[in-house]
Amino acid sequence: MFNTNTINRFQQLDTPFYYYDLDALRKTLEACRTAASKYGFHVHYAMKANFNPKVLDIIQSYGFGADCVSGNEVKAAIEHGFGKDKVVFAGVGKSDREINLALDADIFCFNVESVQELYIINDLAKAKYKTASVAIRINPNVDAHTHHFITTGLDENKFGINTWQLPDVIKALKECPNLKFLGIHFHIGSQITDMEVYKNLCTRINEMQDWFNDHGFEIKVLNTGGGLGVDYYNPDTNGISDFESYFKVFSQFLNVKPGQEVHFELGRALVAQSASLISRVLYVKNGLKKNFLVLDAGMTELIRPMLYQAYHLIENLSQTESEETVHYDVVGPICESTDCFQKDVELPQSHRGDLFAIRTAGAYGEVMASGYNLRDIVGSVYSE
């Protein structure tokens, strides 16, 4: 990913920063759009993965919609050209202010996550003499077989409406004249690479669709959510997720009726491989049992390894020709013991000032940065 000219460019810049390979981003977006278009599927970009302004502008240019989980994400989506008819608003805790903002923007749909929320959106819409389109987010109790911090589709999770609550949903929809029922919504987790999981999801979606039909509700939209994973271990050889297999599963196993739309909400799979966190070695600490590389980037710049025990490939860009290797704990400068990117990783013998790349950081990287320890918020550099 990094040629000599790019590395020389990095040498002139203050670190840490996120480096965006915009060509890689465009290739990924094109692969997704091509695979989805075979089946007439609609893709919404999950903005929580990365809302870097330049990234949003590029994604919007490919015709994707926007999946938002806050009022400010709704606002940003519209400001960056995502048509209001392609904006959906999910989230287990939408505030009245956020709902009103979305109502004023006339967005496509609210993905509703509780029975109480139906009544609240109805009341707020009524006050504005509007009708709000809603999809019911159902908790399908499908195990995504991923990290327990990022699974969202089990009974024990806070997201969505459990199946035993669906009679109350029907009652609420009948009692809320300012709501327009569009369809059903699902999202079972993140970083899913096992296509059997999506096959199981299709089975549950089909069952839920039949249940609503039996109760007199016609479904226009089947929203399957997202969650497609990426290869964190081999970003150069496997830089684009398997969109072909992903969409094919839904084409084969989802019962789509004439006139229905199938929607997806992909985030990580679209942006993760487009960025790396670039950092420098501040100190090399050699001990009897441990060797430490202390970088100038830490959990304030990329918290995933500390929060989810997530793996990111770590590369020394300054020592690509070195044959001597050392096992290091690669850590950051933050005053927390958890501020460690990876333990006991084999790397070329490294020195103060060496440039490092922490790969596949385009999703849930820059957007989760903080100013803890009063650190500067990390900046961005682009390939063009």
Automatic annotation (TrEMBL):
Keywords: Amino-acid biosynthesis, Decarboxylase, Lyase, Lysine biosynthesis, Pyridoxal phosphate
Any one GO biological process: lysine biosynthetic process via diaminopimelate
Root EC class: lyase
Pfam families with a match to the protein in the record: Orn_Arg_deC_N (PF02784), Orn_DAP_Arg_deC (PF00278)
EC number: 4.1.1.20
GO molecular function annotations of the record: diaminopimelate decarboxylase activity
Species of provenance: Mucilaginibacter frigoritolerans
Needed cofactors: pyridoxal 5'-phosphate
Pathway: Amino-acid biosynthesis; L-lysine biosynthesis via DAP pathway; L-lysine from DL-2,6-diaminopimelate: step 1/1
CDD domains per the UniProt record, alphabetical: PLPDE_III_DapDC
Active-site residues from the entry: C335
Record-annotated Orn/DAP/Arg decarboxylase 2 C-terminal domain positions: 18-362
Lineage start: Bacteria, Pseudomonadati, Bacteroidota, Sphingobacteriia, Sphingobacteriales
Coiled-coil intervals, chain numbering: none
Domain Orn/DAP/Arg decarboxylase 2 N-terminal, first and last residues per copy: 30-272
Reactions it catalyzes: meso-2,6-diaminopimelate + H(+) = L-lysine + CO2
InterPro entries: Ala_racemase/Decarboxylase_C, DAP_deCOOHase_LysA, De-COase2_C, De-COase2_N, De-COase2_pyr-phos_BS, Orn/DAP/Arg_de-COase, PLP-binding_barrel
Record protein name field: Diaminopimelate decarboxylase
PROSITE patterns per UniProt: ODR_DC_2_1
Modified residues (N6-(pyridoxal phosphate)lysine): K48
Family: Belongs to the Orn/Lys/Arg decarboxylase class-II family.
